[in-house]
Amino acid sequence: MRLKDKAAFVTGGARGIGRAIAVALAEEGADVAIFSRTQSELDATASAISALGRKAVPLILDVTKADEIQSAFDHVVGELGCLDILVNNAGGLPYELYAAYPADAEGIVPTWQFSEDTWDVILNANLKSVFLCTQAAFRYMADSGGGEIINIASAAGHGRATTGGAYAVAKRGVIALTEVFAHEGREFGIRVNAVSPGEVTTPGHTRFMKEILGIDEDKLPPRQPPENVAKAVLYLLCDAPAEMRGQSILQF
Question: In this predicted model, what pLDDT tens digit does every residue of 146-168 receive, in sequence order?
Fold first, then answer.
């Protein structure tokens, strides 16, 4: 077990990519705090972690609210004793918002048609959340001698956007934040990297493809399983050279 007795926090850790990452960390011996907005999914993932013999701390959390984040981190550090690993996974495409806009011939919502509120929701969920959670993590890690932070960005942030500019802009911002925080974290022993997956088979992505883009079940494009993203996270945590900082592994 390469992460035995490490304390890991995973935002959006109750389903999809986040669940795969949380379980993979537990399989490597970490105790895992998972943050999400859906209690039933939190409970199911916590049970999977506990079944591996590791401690699970599930919490309802809005990762766009600084006061909630600080309270949640304080609580979990109290439960687990420290903070060694943070995976900023929360985010995604809010298909409920996209449904309010007319799509073009390819099913893509033009960015120029977004309202200010929609823009803010997407940027907050995918970029502000990473800033706030990383800021909170730095406070603990800087005092304890270091730690590891992995941000889940997207291939869309590397110029491969196919589903709307606001999401691509947010994920490009995550990649930039990864580089900035990697530089700032060096003196504290905090290593920051990112994973940028392409299309992944998750419930949210499948619903977006079918309900918003109008793609039939039998015509959904090839997608990678969320476990592939978890493998990239484990590589960065366990196998990547110590000098690897500010990088974004592109998976597509």
Answer: 999 999 999 888 875 555 678 88
Q: Which residue has the higher pLDDT, 174 or 217?
A: 174
Mean pLDDT of the chain, nearest integer: 89
Token pair for residue 130?
Answer: 């990473």
Tell me the residue range of the domain where 82 lies.
7-94+126-198+226-247
CB 48 within 8 A of CB 25: no
- Give one DSSP letter per residue of 191-207, joined into a string: EEEEEEE-SB--HHHHH
**CATH number for position 161:** 3.40.50.720
Q: How far apart are CA 119 and CA 135, in angstroms?
A: 23
Residue 138 lies in a domain: yes
Task: Specify if 82 maps to a domain.
Answer: yes
pLDDT in tens, 50-79: 999 999 999 999 999 999 999 999 999 999
Cα 183 from Cα 213, distance rounded (Å) = 39
Give this prediction's pTM: 0.91
Does some domain include residue 114? no
Three-state secondary-structure class, residue 149: strand
Helix, strand, or coil here: 183?
helix
pLDDT digit string (tens) for 2-11?
Answer: 999 999 999 9
Give me the active site residues, please. 167
Number of domains in the chain: 1
